[in-house]
Hints:
By secondary structure, the protein is an alpha/beta fold. It has 18 helices and 18 strands. The strands form 6 sheets. It has a 6-stranded mixed β-sheet, sandwiched between helices. A 4-stranded antiparallel β-sheet has the order 11-12-14-13. The protein has a two-stranded antiparallel ribbon with strand order 2-17. Strand 5, helix 9 (about 180-185) and strand 6 form a beta-alpha-beta unit. Helix 11 (about 220-230) runs antiparallel to helix 12 (about 235-250).
Amino acid sequence: MAYPSAWDHPEPLALASAPLPEYGSGSLADLLPTLAAGMAVPDMTASIQELAPADRNCVFLVDGLGWEQLRAHPDEAPFMTSLLASSRGGTGRPITAGYPATTATSLASVGTGLPPGAHGLPGYSARNPETGELMNQLRWQPWTSPSRWQPYPTVFELAHLAGVHTAQVSSPTFASTPLTKVALSGGTFHGRLTGEERMDLAAEQLAGGDRSLVYTYYSELDGAGHRYGVASDTWRGQLMCVDRLVQRLAEQLPPRTTLYVTADHGMVDVPFDEEHRFDFDHDWELSAGVALLGGEGRARHVYAVPGAEQDVLTCWREVLGEQFWVASRDEAIAAGWFGPRIDDRVYARIGDVVAAAHDDVLIIASEREPKESALVGNHGSLTPAEQLVPLLEVRS
């Protein structure tokens, strides 16, 4: 009998086993172009073929409302549960967020109608090749020119130019942020503090034109999941609030309107122990040869010291390869994680090594990322719990 030796390493996860987002047929990036095509906006393609056109369309994006989490809580969300069969044009299926499944990336995919490799927001944080610094794409720190970082027009802008009444209804906090500018600008932004006010105003804006495209947003469910986890009473209470908001908006839709309820990602609770949380700041193997650590705990961009790229890739695969899909930049691109094409300006923003969690694990950085490292609920990777999001439908 052959016994394993100390030099034996388990086979790393095959990259081909990673589920791919449905770019081009059923991802967040395909939603607004499909709706805009149905309203005769030029140069838009109806890629989600299950969706029937409507004169007025409303997208209600609930931050953190994963498909699996919604299906697991019918008692807290009876109205949305009653709509599950309507998802994705009555197929009862979800759509996918795109990689990584994180807010900045997903909002940019929604608003531009482009996958991450084109719009260029490939994660929570990514290296700016022009400065060599990490760029936090949610908080937009350090500041860089929004139009240089993401130069494409949004679908809202193109719809507005085509004569569609276009509006965004969200928290006043987001009125002038760079992320709003690069992802959601076009038409008119309306800031309202409460969810109820947003639902009421969204309905009013939908009635404001013969053709209307309205976007509204709710973030508190995501915040509860991050702080307390998707198994918490706090999260379930927020889900109940969301359910009431969806019903409130659905009951006010003007004629010839379709409401779509979707999300930017799902979420996974990760236990607080060393078996589930690998601390980069205290792990000499993971940190050796690494110049910058980007992304987030379940979707890392790893930027190597020049010349150390292969060594870093080898080490990360040996240490993490049973629990993470670990790829080189070119492997992740070739596999299609970031979409079918990568713009030249985006290529070096992607890590030399890209690590996507398979199990309920994290790569934290307790010293450089203390707040993020303390989160209960996390997201970003390619697993169904994070990738799959609803596309619930109500028609008037």
